[in-house]
Amino acid sequence: MFGNLRTSTKLLLLSGMFILSLLVAAYGWLAEKQIAIDFARKELIGTRYLGPLGKVYASVLTDDAKAAEVLRMLAAAEVDAAGSLNSAELERDLAAAIRQHFDQSRLVDTLSKARDLAARIGDNSGLALDPELDSYYVQKILVKELPSLLLQLGELQTLLNTKPESAAGGDSRVRPLLLAGMIRSTLEEIERDSAAAYGGTARITQSLTGSTRSMIAAVDSYLQAASATDGDTSSGALTNSYRTALDSVLGSWTAGQAELKHLLEMRLSDLLSKLRSSLTLIALVACLSLVLAVLTYRQIVGPLRQLEEFAGRVRETKDYSLRINIDRKDEIGQLALAFNTMLEDLAAAREREASEHVRTVTMQAELERAARFTAMGELAASIAHEINQPLAAIVNNASAGLRWINNRPPNLDEVRLVLGHLVNDGGRCSEIIAGIRAMLKKGSQSRAEIDLNELICGVKNLVQSQLETRGVLIQTQLADDLPRVMADRVQLQQVFLNLFVNAAEAMACISDRERVVNVRSERYEGEGALIAVQDSGIGIDTAHAGRIFDAFFTTKSEGMGMGLSICQSIVQSHGGRMMVSPGNPHGSVFCVILPAHGTGGPQ
Predict the structure, then answer these.
(1) CATH value of 448-603 in 3.30.70.120, 3.40.190.10, 3.30.565.10, 3.10.450.50
(2) Whole-angstrom distance between the N-terminal and C-terminal Cα of the chain?
């Protein structure tokens, strides 16, 4: 099915499939880039959310007077997230805890809710799955470690501010020590992650690492002050150290959030820049492909269509002098050159064929003319032989008559008998001359109604003496009801004369059986007439049976092979046909079938 399509359709399909493949590949690549862009945008949403969350920590741990403003910022951050972080429930719980007037015993619960919200933000915004090491460690500090540190600091300060008598058992002494150890462990983790975050990036080293070091120093100072209180928590130094530690942690929060936002914005900008560059490159490749497809279509389909139209014009007009004008060096140009060369060869062959045809027609006409002269020569020889016979009889009878008259007394009865023979021989000569005149007179070419039996007998009389000298006997079996035919007498006489002579020649080498030419006439299928001439010769070789009526074909050492061809032409011109078949038991049978006068040719 594909092989039957036009070349233009195949090129369109090929170009379409190429462009479709390009678009599919581009779509897959763009979809992958879009996923990365969407991921970075979602991380930005989470990073923006961490800003108000840091204000929550500052409000809860330092100054409760700004709670209303912090709640508005927190609600705005949730609206900005548009439910993509699935954090609405945790945000409501944290806001409810902030709205309540809390004491130191409820501070830890509020900070736990804030830490849970930070963890949810990190998980659902993709920050926890960030593929870049620098931003991954920064978000880890913001989402996990700083909230834990603030919770631990708040809980430690709460325990230190709690009166000893309100503490349960020995928890007032053990729990602060555990929290101090946990704070130091968190500080170590923050320090490691801060060092790993920059990974050789000078920007992070200058901004985040400096604030981290200050935070670690401030928190260490607070822990030293807490361990030196020895139960006296009313010291102003401890409060100031706590305030300084909180400010440094919140400062690290702000610096980390700004740094993370900056990293993500740079990544998003880079992704968008690469996306625009890729789209531009894909558009250029697509346009170039379309231009190349159009040029290929014009350079291939147009010349091929021109060749097709030119070939159709040559086929319709048979004018091999036409030439196609395609001056190109590619395969189509070579095809056009080969086509023009082929037309030149065809034109030359056509001219040679026409010349050969004219020469063949001329030669055939000359050969037919020579064959007719040969046939007329044979006819003249037969006529001369036939006339010589009665003339010789006349001479002999006249000599005998003279002898009978010179006798003394003259034998008148014998003279009368001889004179009667002379009259008969003279009548015979007259009949022969009349037949010759009938064959040669000018009006003999016009067709007339002919009795075939009479015509056969006339030809038999002409050649009988000649055939008898060859030892050939002519036998006739002529039907009485044979229909008359409309024909040219001379032409039919030539046909049968040729058949009789050919039959005699076919038996020239026969010595073991009688040489007989059997001529038979009969009605053919009720309308026409059939004349069969059979000899007792060697017959026709089966290898030559199909060519026996071809012009110039002969098995004789002499002759041009035109006799039977001319005979067939004459019979066909009369609406009849000739056939040949093997004789029984010997020889060959030539049959001439002619239509009766007033009927069409035989079927």
Answers:
(1) 3.30.565.10
(2) 48
